[in-house]
Each structure stands twice: as C-alpha cells, then as structure tokens.
Description:
By secondary structure, chain A is of the alpha+beta class. Chain A has helices at residues 2-27, 43-74, 91-111, 113-120, 236-250, and strands at residues 130-135, 138-143, 156-159, 161-165, 169-176, 181-185, 190-194, 200-205, 210-216, 229-234. The N and C termini of chain B lie far apart (64 Å).
Amino acid sequence: MGKRIAGIFWSLLFLAVPVLGVATFAVAPAYDHWLPKDVSEHGASIDSLFYFILALTGVVFIATEVLLFWFMWKYDASQQKGAATYIHGSHTLEVVWTIIPAATLLFLAIYQMNAWADVKMRRPAMAPTVEVVARQFEWRLRYPGRDGTLGTADDLFLVNDLHLPIDEDVLIQLKSMDVLHSFFLPNVRIKQDAVPGMKIPVWFKAREAGEFDIVCAELCGWGHYKMKGRITLEPRASFDAWLEQKYAEQQATQPAPEAPGDLAKSE
Amino acid sequence: MNRQLAFAAVVLACVAGCGKTPPAQFRLNMVQATKTSAPDSELKTSWSNWSRERQAQVATILEAMFGTPDEPVALKESGLDEAKLRLAAGPVRSDIVGRKNGLYREHCVHCHGISGDGMGPTAAFLNPYPRDYRPGKFKFKSTWRDAKPTHADLVKVLHEGVAGTSMPSFALLSTAQVDALAEYVRYLSIRGETEAALFGYAEQELGSGDQLPTTREFLVDEILTPIVEKWQAAEEAQIPIAALPAGVNFDLPGSDPANRESVARGRALFLGDGGCVKCHGVTGLGDGQANDYDDWNKSIVEVTKEVVGSLEASRTAETSGMSAEKLAEHRARAEWLHAFAGVLEGDALRPRTIPPRNLRLGAYRGGRRPLDLYRRLYTGINGAPMPGVGPSGPGGKGSVADAEIWHIVNYIRSLPYDFDGELGADRPMVAKDRF
Lengths: 267, 435
C-alpha cells in the first residue's frame, strides 16, 4: 500500500509542473509581470515572434509534462504484475521527432529574418546620435554636440541619464571600457552586448515619450546590480532644449546658484 | 516516506538559510593605533596586553560617541543629522513607509569598507584605491586646500562619480538618498578624525599605563569640537572665482583663432610660472615625475620604511651587556615592531604611486567644467602632490594671478583636441581617433 502512495506522490508532483507552469503564465500579466510596455517601432515584430515561439514551446511543454505524468501513473511498479518487456525502439518515431523540430526550427530561422535584419543589419545611414560607453558600473554618455561630430571640443559628457528624441531614427555607438556588458532597453526591445575593443552600432525609432530603465543584462562584476540608467524619450524640441541646457551646465565658469540636484527625483 | 521527509527538510533549510550574520562592527585604524603606541620605559605589563587595553578603551569611547554601523549616534555637538545617518546606515532593508534603508551598504561598502577605511573587499583590485575617509581629507571640492569639502561638493562627487577611477555615478538616486550618503561620509570622516585625535592625544600626553580621560569636557570640547568646527566652516571657506578675462571664450574650441592668444598665454604659464610642466610634462601627457605618492599611500610608505629599518636595528642589537631593565625595554620594543610589521602587512593596502594626469585624455576626475578645472588649479588637489597656483589662503598671493588661471584652463581644455604638429612624430592620438 505504501508503495502505491509513493507512486501517486511522485506522479502528482510531476503533474504539478505543467499545472503550476501554466498557472504562473496565466496570472503573471495581472501582477504586472509580463513584457514591459513597448514604445519602439520594431518592437511589435519581436513581441509577435516571442508570442509565436511561446505558443509553440508551450504546447510541446504541456504535452511532454502530461505524458511524463501519465507514464508514471500508468506504469507504477507496484501496480505492474508481469515482467517488463524491452524493445529496441521505433525507427519511425525517431525520424518523426527529429524531422518535425528540425522543420520547425528552419521555419523559425527564415520567418524571423526580417525582424533580425531590422534590428541588427539595416543600420540607418547617419552619424551617431550618442555614444554609450559601458563601464563597471555605469553608462557613460557622450553626445556629439552642435557640430554633430564625436571627438570634438563641444562634445557633451553625461553619465546614466540618456535622453533621445522620438519619431526619428537614433543611432547609438556602443562601447565598453573594461569587460562585457549588455546594453538593455526593455521598453525599446533592444539588447546588445558591449564588447571591449568594438564599436557596435545600435539603432531604433521610438514612438512614445516617457522615462524608462537602462539595465545591464550581462553579469559584469560585483556591482552589476547598480548598473542602472535612465532613458528619457522626448519630442525633438524638448530633446534639443535639454541638450542645450546640459551643454551650458558643462561650460559653467561660475558656481550654479543651487546644488546640482536637478537629476534626482524623489522616489 | 522517510526519503520524502528528508527532501522536504532540505528544501526548507535552503529557503530558511543556515544562521544569522553577526552585527557589523567598526574596525579600529590599526596602523595608527600601533604607530601611536610605541612602548616607553614605564611599561609594566607586556606590550601586547597594554596596547590591546588602549585599543579597547578607544573603541569603547568611539562607540559611545558614534554608535555602531547598525545604530549610528550623532551627538548634538557633532552637527550630524541622525535621521539621515539612519537612512544610510545598517543592513539594506525597507522600513514601514517602504523607504529604502542601509544605502551605504547597498552602494558603497564593498569598496569603501564598513568603517570608511577604503579597504572593502574589492578595494585591493582597484587603481586608484577607494578613498579612506578617516583622515577627513577630500580631493575634489570648492574650498581652500586645507578646508573641508562642502555638502554640495560631496553630493557632486556622488552625482557624477570620478571619471577615470572606479567611482561610479549615483546620479539616479533621489536627493534624499544622496544627501543621506553624503552625511554618512561626513560621519565616517568625523569618526575617523576623532579616533586619530584620541590616539594622537594618547601618544603625546599619556605614558604607558595611563588611561584616556573619559569626561565630557575632554571628549567633546577638546577632541570633537575642533574637528566639527572645521567641517562647519566649509561653507564659508569656498575659494573666490575670478571673472573671465577678455579673450577667453569656452564656447569656442581651444584651437579657434579667437582663443589663440589666451591658449598661448595658458601654455606659457603651464611651462613657466604655473610649474605644471614639472609633473605633467611638456606635452601634457603626464610623463614628468611619476614616482610620488598621495598622502594616504605616502603615510604607509614612510611608516613601512621606518618599521623595517628599526626592526633590522633591533634584530642586530647587542643584548648581552644590557641591564635587566634595558633588556625588558628592548623586548617590548621588538614586540611592538613585530606587531607593527604584521599590521602593515594585513591592515594596509600595498602602496601605489599616483602618476600625474595625462591631460590629453580628456578625462577629468573632479569634473570637466571650466569651473572645476579652475578650482583644481587654484588650490591644487588636497592629499595629492598636485600644488595650487592660487594663494594658499584668503588674502595670500599665488604663483599665478587669479584671472590668469583661466588661460591655463583654456590651454588644458584644448589639449585633448590639439595636435598641431608641436609634438612631432610621437604625438598622442587625438580624442577623435582614440578608442
């Protein structure tokens, strides 16, 4: 009798995996644990790919887990009287479950090509809007200034507080000063590793204004957790005004009337 | 069934954790504690017992005056804001209002250490080392060289970080949080300076066997108040900023014809009266003298040299003819030197030299605004070998007139972008070509 209980325990434990797994996904959006708000032009194609793959793998996941439960339940050793038979396997089955995933993967590889090219290959022909240099543990920013060229005397230097215009292409030149980092803008559906020694172009077009997080998505050391920045997407006019204001601050020759506390917002 | 129970027990143990961490404690400045407790002829017990007693006494006094890392205390006379300290101190946690506490341990401690000694677990890997707050010396500030930084100065460093070092920017923390952290840095400094004053007093005034006085008059009026007064005087100790002389225009690049005269004047001062060339080199590459130390490292270098020398002398000393009294003194001294060598090995980071800045990199530790460079030039950098070209105090006279400093600022700002052939074949890469 005790053995039967053990069999039931283990098979139900295995059944709990698909049940809890599906339940987690079902309630996650209600608790705001779903994809962050997308404000980019290309994000929709990435999200639809995500949902498509989620559905595909979801079906396979549930089928596999239920089958696992069913085998444990049905073929519980304590309930089996006869001797077990050993078979070599099924050649047909092997071929089928090799070809179906292979065909699916091939389909995905072709189906996603356009989305990939949009984000990683079709770079807009323009000078960088800003240079982002990742560093343990901050994002150092350099804007080209009025002459539009990086590396000249009117460059604007800032840290962690990235502003970019909406409704137009922006090109970011991504570099790293020390180790691998990953420049992740969840709300713009951009994630790109920053590699020491490389200048990597990153581009997007934002549709909506707002303030969002910049995070580091590659464990880069002790202080990885504090590598959080802020991206402010705003219309061109206010972006330009902000650039002018920051540049004026950088050119200061007399102390400002108040302490430099304008960046900080109360929590 | 037993196996299932064991499985459940393992899961529970993993979730609950295995034990409580002991409460955080401040560490004494062992280098200083040992340095100031050289044995004298009056020493009756063994040196190690006596020095341990003195250290325990200082630790007790400090705890009474400043509390612990979890429970900081701000005496009224310290001028510190206890509410701010509580926000920064203690383990990382949220209180009832959902406000984040323990900011120092969240953001600072792994480099600057629980006692603000600049010896957190990651410190040894950094160059330059993180700041040791205990001597109360700060580099990037708006005040006279020997004065303390203002609150705004500390906030600025937290906001912008220190470019070219491992100090990152905390620009996205709220004003209240940055204020609390700046206050906590002040607290660690005042605490460290008080500790230094106590050990210094003991060395100067007390013989072996004497105890430090513990009266309020002594601890607060004689030790704490002079330290706090310097901090409170910071706001009034800001250096004057001269008006821009004609011909200096920072909105134009340094190479602009309109600026050429000013840049040339700046260059002449850089090579001449300013004396910058001695360390930063003719090219501004920072290739002048490069084997000097900053004050923090220098104190370790000097004391190490002394201890090693004395230890050698003590080892080779002829002891056979000594009287019993002399021999006891000799032994106590040897014990002290051995302990000192151990402390230098274990409680201090290996000294690093501080090379002069390469001015063609365009990385400015104390800020890149013309105003920041003016302040660096005017007072020099406190704690570093960099001297100021302005007067050393109000009413004094510097090696360069106040308004003329702007020309040097102009020249320095042109260096990262300027390569007009003056440097020959080995000219440095300009910022545009450099990775």
